[in-house]
Protein: Carbon dioxide concentrating mechanism protein CcmL
Organism: Allorhodopirellula heiligendammensis
Amino acid sequence: MFLARVIGSIVSTQKVASMKGHKLLIVEPYRLDADTRASLVTTGRTFIAVDTLGSGEGDLVLVCQGSSARLTPETKTLPIDAVITGIVDSVHIEKKSVFDRTKEA
Amino acid sequence: MFLARVIGSIVSTQKVASMKGHKLLIVEPYRLDADTRASLVTTGRTFIAVDTLGSGEGDLVLVCQGSSARLTPETKTLPIDAVITGIVDSVHIEKKSVFDRTKEA
Amino acid sequence: MFLARVIGSIVSTQKVASMKGHKLLIVEPYRLDADTRASLVTTGRTFIAVDTLGSGEGDLVLVCQGSSARLTPETKTLPIDAVITGIVDSVHIEKKSVFDRTKEA
Amino acid sequence: MFLARVIGSIVSTQKVASMKGHKLLIVEPYRLDADTRASLVTTGRTFIAVDTLGSGEGDLVLVCQGSSARLTPETKTLPIDAVITGIVDSVHIEKKSVFDRTKEA
Amino acid sequence: MFLARVIGSIVSTQKVASMKGHKLLIVEPYRLDADTRASLVTTGRTFIAVDTLGSGEGDLVLVCQGSSARLTPETKTLPIDAVITGIVDSVHIEKKSVFDRTKEA
């Protein structure tokens, strides 16, 4: 899995029938800053993931890829390869807090 | 999943029998422009995806990869690893519209 | 899937028993030339794919990766992650012909 | 699989129900140093993996990705794409010891 | 699949129970040299693969990734994503021999 920031959403009306009613969010994968090792930074990539948790723009989330994206009750039969499996509260790396949801603006 | 622009198509007459009759489109994955964060730009990569929605050149589409590409009614038994699952109408990132199908040329 | 040029082959006598008798070709993935957008160029990567179509060196082919590589009649139970699913006749991108098998040397 | 160093952990309270109670660790994939070929160095990437072995920060571990991450007794039905399958004691490359757990600080 | 050189091995005593007794080798993926197109060179990446063929350090091998790594008799139920499926005798690219096992030191 990877950490990602929810940065937006897409609208698609012409789609595979089973996809109707599923929220599609745009997520930007994050990684540890290689220089400071004290914060998370964007990888510059852009993915689309299904959300079933009520995630919103700005949230840091956990994203599962591949066939396992179908291992949630709402996504079992969907043609999807990425799903949000958690909204992240905090991230600690090498004893330091590098993310705390309660301190976000 | 990822966003991609349909840029072309391929023709193949010698192919695995089950692939006959399936439309193969060339798609170019897009990502958020890292500098402006106000538009989508190409990643420079080139993939082939099966289309079952009537997508055409120039369309921005949603592409699903991996075994989940077989989770649509038309692709269940195909040796494919990518399928177009939606034609995108609009994309919003950080409260800005970065794509609107009705404003495309 | 991706487009690739068949550039060679490998011989392996000590192998998993089920792999005996299957042709293993070396394929080089191709992408659209980002500058001219008028031809296909190598990505510089090197993969091995099983061939069941009689593909030969120099052919441009369609390659399927992942578990779907096992969705052809000849590859159902093989420990493989890539199979050639089509020999490409022509590729059109942005209304231009960027590959035509009949015009290859 | 790949070798990775456990560098931290995440906390997520709003998550897919089946994920409750599973430990989520942050792992940094390592590779052989291309220059010296005598030590392991970080790739600069950041992944999240489920741990069922009691791995702790600083451990070098073996990580399995994809659907096979569900092939352990504790992870069979989870929406996960990475699991720690071993805590590494030693690594030998080209006859040299490049990692020895007993010599770590 | 990809070609790789076996460069070492790892030892892990604390591991998922089903992994006990399986040999874990370190493999370095190879690709065609883009300049000369006459030899194979390392990609600089480092992976771990299960071996069931008796591969040894220095061998050039064929590696299968993903769920298909479980499609050999010895690996059916293992949490692994890479397996060695062949020891390579020779590689020919563009009519040239770029690898011959009998000529290795």
Notes: Residues 81 and 90 of chain D are 25 Å apart (CA to CA).
